[in-house]
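Q: My labmate handed me this sequence with no annotations at all. I'd like to see what the chain might look like in three dimensions before we decide whether it's worth expressing. Could you predict it?
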Amino acid sequence: MDLRRRDIKDWIVALTLLVGLAACQSNGQPHAASEIDIAALNWIGADIDPVVHLSQEPATCLTHGDLPSVLRGELLFNSPLLLGGQAAKAELSCAACHRNGRGNPDFVFPGISDAPGTADVSNGFFSKLRADHVFNPVHIPDLARAEGRTRVDRQTEGVLETFLRAQIVEEFAGNAPEQETILDLAAYIRALDDRACDTDEARQPSWQDEMKRLRTGADHINETQTAVSIDYINAMRAALGRLHARYQGPQLAAVRDQMVKISRDLAADPTSLALVEALDRLEASLEAFEAYALYKPSVLSQALR
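A: Here is what I predict for the chain of 305 residues:
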C-alpha cells in the first residue's frame, strides 16, 4: 500500500473523529448545543438558517451514477484531505463549495467570500502559488449546469484531468494526487449533468449517503488490496468523521466508538477482510439510533437552540 502521504493527513481526520467524545451531558437531553461540531456550520452566512442548510441540499444530477469510477470520484470529492493544507485543516472539500457537485449559495468563508455563494480562488490563504493579492471573489458555479459543465473542456481526453490536478496542487497547495485519483474525480465530474435531474428539487442528506461512500471505499480496497491509494483511505475516514459529527449525545457514544475503531483500523490495516463486517455492524447501529442523529430537522433544531 502507498503510504507516502500519510503524515499530517492522518491525524487531521483522527482529531475530527475524536471531537465530542469527551464531555457528555447528564441532563437526559439527546444533545447540547456545545456538542455540535459540524464543519459546514463554519462557512455559512450569519443570515442562513443552519437547520435548513444542514437538512437540505441540491438534488443529485448524475448520469451513469452507478459506475464504480463515478462512485469513487464522489467519495474523493467529499474528502478535505485530498486538497491538503489549510483546506484540510478547515475540513473544506470540493463538496463544501459544490454540494452534491452542484453549487452552494450559502457558502461564506471569512476572508475568502464577500456575498454568500462566492469565493476568491486566487486568495493566498489556501495557496501562495495562485495568490494575486487582490480580493476578487467570484460566483461558485453549479457543476451540473451549463455554466459549470462548459467552464472546462470535459470532452477532450486529459484536459479535465490536467485542470483537476492543477486545482489540487496550485489552488490548494495539496500533494500531487495519483493518476487513479484524478481519473475517478474526472469520471464523477463528467457525470454531473442537470439534464439528469430536477434541478429545483432539494434532497435531505442522510447517514445512508455516508454509508454508501464507505461501501464504495471498501469495495475498492477489496479489489485493489495492497495497491490501494491513501487518498481513498483518507476519504473513507473523512466520511466517518462526518457521521461522527451527526451522531452526538450521550446515548450515541457506543456508535461513535465504532466509527473511531473503524477509522483506526483503516489507518493500520485497510486490507483487512473484517472491514465489510465492521461496516455491517456500523450500519445496523446507525439505523437503530437514527432518531437521535443530527440529520433530522427536528433533532437539529433542538440541538442548535
